[in-house]
Write a structure and sequence with these properties.
Helix content is 64%, strand content 0%. The protein has 266 residues and is mostly helical. It folds into 3 domains: 30 residues; 103 residues; 112 residues, Arc Repressor Mutant, subunit A (Orthogonal Bundle). The termini are far apart. 16% of the residues are buried. About 2% of the residues have low confidence.
């Protein structure tokens, strides 16, 4: 959209120069008007606003995945973090250059500045194109508008907790590597908001950590019963619902405060 708007702007300028004014305005003095301080300041403000809003959306979606999926680590969107970091560098660089170089009349005088910008933008393009993000997007939660206040009684929370305990202890739904809040709530026939509220308030966890805590406990039990060591730690972790070694290690250390090897060698 921004590129389309800029194209329309350029067309309007061209029509004004050659069809209306019949004179050259945009390069009347041999200098690009885009390099004027006013243009640069407006562009900087626009970029800064975009960066700030993007960071807030990313943080909100990250929290959303933690509260709605049991595989949040696989949808961390690390390439988005890289993009935001690079964009932050661009914004900071623009601030430094605008302070140190007040004159914007000539491209040639600021060639190194534009060269750095070009490298950063090529980096962003390559990063986005080569991203190895392969999660099934159809299983991801949609980021809706902020939820309104949702009040429930203690009895409702306790009843939901009983259903969750049965779902985990008896049916072992945590073994499903792609388990989501929506799927679990439909299975136990309770609203997703009530399940989320129960996990947050009674267990003091988000949904992702809640499910992983059961997986860690299941792994500990499986490892202790694996006396003949026919399976590796990773095999056991995958059997217990984890989908990667990195996710398993992070969840195990978060739940036990120790790494798997330290825990079993203690």
């Amino acid at each position: 959209m921004p590129s389309v708007l800029y194209l329309l702007y350029s067309v309007v300028i061209w029509l004004a120069d050659f069809a209306v004014l019949q004179d050259v305005y945009f390069y009347a003095d041999g200098k690009d008007k885009d390099l004027k301080f006013g243009y640069q300041l407006v562009g900087f403000i626009s970029m800064a606003i975009y960066l700030i809003k993007s960071i807030f959306v990313y943080m909100r979606y990250r929290q959303h995945t933690l509260n709605n999926t049991s595989f949040a680590d696989t949808v961390s969107l690390s390439w988005v973090r890289y993009f935001l970091t690079a964009l932050l560098i661009v914004v900071l660089l623009k601030v430094v250059v605008m302070i140190l170089i007040p004159g914007w009349g000539s491209f040639g005088n600021h060639f190194s500045y534009y060269l750095i910008f070009s490298i950063l933008f090529y980096f962003l393009a390559i990063l986005g194109y080569s991203s190895s993000y392969t999660s099934n997007t159809h299983a991801l939660p949609v980021l809706d508008q902020p939820e309104t206040q949702f009040n429930v009684s203690d009895d409702d929370l306790k009843a939901c907790a009983d259903l969750l305990n049965k779902a985990m202890d008896v049916h072992k739904y945590y073994l499903n590597q792609k388990l989501t809040l929506s799927e679990l709530s439909k299975t136990i026939e309770v609203s997703g908001r009530l399940v989320s509220k129960t996990v947050n308030q009674l267990y003091k966890m988000n949904f992702n950590d809640y499910i992983n805590s059961y997986r860690v406990e299941a792994f500990i039990e499986s490892y202790q019963n694996n006396s003949d060591q026919l399976k590796t730690m990773l095999d056991l972790a995958m059997d217990c619902g984890f989908n990667s070694k990195a996710t398993f290690n992070r969840a195990f250390k978060k739940h036990t405060k120790k790494s798997p090897k330290s825990y079993f060698n203690a």
